[in-house]
């Protein structure tokens, strides 16, 4: 009886002992479990599960704001393209964002521009990961 209680307690408490090793892991774990705008603690500090691009897209949906975010997305995409890690779909998303501005759909344009900027930012992270871990791609 005691053994089964100890095993049950260990299994019940096991998830609480599984701590994220890095901020990125903690962010991704909380984002997957709770979605955007969730506050979580990591290493004694409070963070939210919101990407910077989501915050940028929450401005008032005006033509000027949409065009400004599209410009940021284009700049970030240019940066990742120079590194050689541009994602194929990002240019199309920027094109769609510009079309949304032309149609007066400013919130849609903001959302698309934020998505394009996010893809470019992740492409840059992918580049840095590849630079650090290139040896893992070499056959042995």
Automatic annotation (TrEMBL):
Organism superkingdom: Bacteria
Family annotation (Gene3D superfamilies): 1.20.1270.390
Signal peptide: 1-20
Keywords: Signal
Signal listed as a keyword: yes
Listed name of the protein: SoxXA-binding protein
Lineage: Bacteria, Pseudomonadati, Pseudomonadota, Gammaproteobacteria, Oceanospirillales
Native source organism of the sequence: Neptuniibacter caesariensis
